[in-house]
Amino acid sequence: MAVTGPHPANVPTLPAHTDPDTDRVMDSGLLHELSYAFGGPFHFLLPHRFDTNLTAFRAVLDDAGVTGQVYYAKKANKAAVWMERCAAHHAGVDTASAPELRAALGHGVRGADIVVTGPAKSTELLRLAAHQGCLVAVDSLDELDLLVTLALTGTARPARLLLRRLPPAQPHSRFGLTAAEVATALDRCVRAGDAVRMEGFSFHLSGYATRPRADLAGELVAHCLRARELGLRADRISIGGGFAVDYSSAGHWHTFLDGQRPEHYHAHKTFEPDGFYPYHSPVAGADALRAILDTVPEGARTSLAGLLKETGTMLMTEPGRALLDGAGASVFCVQGVKERDGYRILTVDGTSLSLSEQWFNSEYLPDPYLVTAAGRARGGAEAHPACVGGASCLEPDLLTWRKVPFPARPRIGDLLVYPNTAGYQMDSNESSFHDLPLPPKVVVDRLGDRPRWRLDRHPAC
Ligand SMILES: Cc1ncc(COP(=O)(O)O)c(C=O)c1O
Q1: Atom 7 (ligand 1): residue with closest C-alpha?
Q2: pLDDT tens digit string along 66-86?
């Protein structure tokens, strides 16, 4: 049965951008040692890359002369090390549950640097947020009333809040306040007097386009000006997250999309091309923030940066995925290899729960690396296509349905390294299915010939 072939141009491949830090870890021999030590899959984290991304966001604000704060959206990855980095750099954190808020506080982030988002927040979460002086993005009138009551009856006064706007361009969003509700909310904030400190407005948009963010930001600045006329503070806006990550080159991405067909996937599985994350973005990360600031919002005379400065309005951003770009990877060991007609089925020692894209009817597409005991497999003349299944009894538990054209024949004991997985892939959906332990996270504090590592301090590890 032929399971190899010359590297045919039509086998879809999506190489991630070359990443020297990930390459150094893969070439250090550390991963095989850790795989042996843990006896299962694990993730490694590169905190210096988080620092670099944070610095880039801050530099964009500085260059534009805009006063702002970056809040790391904690939902993107549970590791404690990101909180530690935020605390060390006086960065903010965006939390959306009481445990997330407690984790941020517990790892040294000040309440004043925390924003609390998410819908229908529990009384426990609102009380804790008010008590710790966190900024609450209010999502509904009920929530506003509850927060006001807590502020009036508790010791924490005033309760700091933003009003979250339902995006007019995404009217089916279940988040945020309609225009009429904003008017009612402003009235209630005025009536609440000293019990609340209404600091401005917020939104979070689906998708990654920059223009709609600039347009809505412009609208929120106008809301701030009206709120100030009512005697409210309203000196900041939050434009949420949604700064794209650029995983692969334009050429690779478009060739991939044009070339992929059902026969390139195990069981002829099909995915809607527009259901894939846009793995190439010409404008990504901090550059997307720069583009937003440079855009003249609809109806305005000046760029968003100019508008913010003219009106003395501070800009809050809540990037999750973009702060984690390049900051981690996921490692699985090949535990079984089956031959099929023209390809192989690899079974690894973990499950697709550690690569969440599958749980959104999609697939994490950047090619995994094959790392043998002798080192990284390099491109040869032959392709060795294989899909990747999880060690579970579930038929659909595949980490990769696509028949990835590996550069060498994968064998039991080899490692598969999925690159750039820190943003939403590694732990959003993990559970201890089959009583398997949650994959530990290893923090690589120092690169070099012998990388220094430690376990992350999140309790799940
Ligand atoms: C309110 C809010 N802020 C920030 C984010 C982070 O988005 P991203 O990771 O795409 O930057 C999200 C994601 O759902 C969100 O809902």
Answers
A1: 241
A2: 999 999 999 999 999 999 999
